[in-house]
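TICKET: design request
STATUS: open
ATTACHED STRUCTURE:
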């Protein structure tokens, strides 16, 4: 376990290079995009809201395992997501998500290595992506929102780009049998007031998706950000 964490919990800007960018392009922009358009009739709204620089964190609601490649396929920049460290114990999956730029985290606590990696991503041409819910939720609801994303935005001085996802929870295989809608909101400026950023994100995601935010006091502090 310690070996996996040591190898995959830290990234440097140089690792987000041409070869990883090419791999993501082939996997997400071509392979997955064909699937999204052919099977799910993908619709994207709000691309004009995406900043031209990479000083923002992509923060989307989470419905299924399709969400990370969907975000990577839709947005103009490559997106590096954090992934729970247990996924890096599975050999093929470890190779796959490693090449897609993901890095390992302990979901209970975002430590110094996470902050350093996000800062390294900011130095590259990629952007950092995170699902504030921490785990997949149910359609129609926004539950389990944690504060970690707002804390990272504050520390790294990155705005928060809200992205609403609808329809990825429905598994479809026949052509044009599904429907996925991605709505991108306007960036939320980073702030020292973490609570305010969390509140603005949940409000914006509700508007983008039509889902209802359901507070869960026990989850708000599940993921913290450690500076030491």
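STATUS: resolved
RESOLUTION: sequence designed for all positions
ATTACHED SEQUENCE:
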């Amino acid at each position: 376990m310690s070996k996996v964490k040591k190898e995959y919990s830290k990234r440097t800007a140089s690792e987000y290079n041409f070869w990883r960018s090419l791999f993501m392009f082939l996997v997400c922009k071509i392979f997955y995009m064909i699937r999204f358009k052919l099977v799910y009739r993908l619709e994207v709204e709000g691309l004009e809201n995406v900043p031209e620089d990479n000083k923002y964190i992509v923060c989307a609601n989470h419905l299924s395992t399709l969400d990370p490649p969907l975000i990577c396929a839709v947005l103009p920049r490559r997106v590096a997501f954090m992934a729970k460290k247990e996924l890096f114990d599975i050999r093929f999956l470890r190779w796959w998500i490693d090449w897609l730029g993901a890095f390992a985290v302990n979901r209970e606590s975002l430590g110094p290595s996470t902050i350093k990696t996000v800062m390294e991503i900011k130095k590259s041409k990629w952007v950092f992506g995170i699902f504030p819910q921490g785990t997949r939720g149910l359609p129609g609801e926004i539950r389990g929102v944690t504060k970690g994303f707002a804390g990272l935005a504050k520390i790294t001085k990155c705005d928060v780009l809200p992205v609403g996802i609808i329809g990825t929870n429905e598994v479809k295989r026949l052509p044009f049998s599904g429907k996925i809608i991605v709505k991108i909101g306007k960036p939320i400026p980073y702030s020292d007031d973490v609570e305010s950023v969390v509140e603005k994100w949940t409000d914006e995601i509700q508007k983008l998706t039509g889902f209802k935010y359901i507070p869960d006091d026990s989850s708000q502090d599940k993921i913290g950000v450690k500076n030491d």
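CLOSING REMARK: The chain has one domain: 2-169+177-222. Residues 82 and 103 are 5 Å apart (CA to CA).
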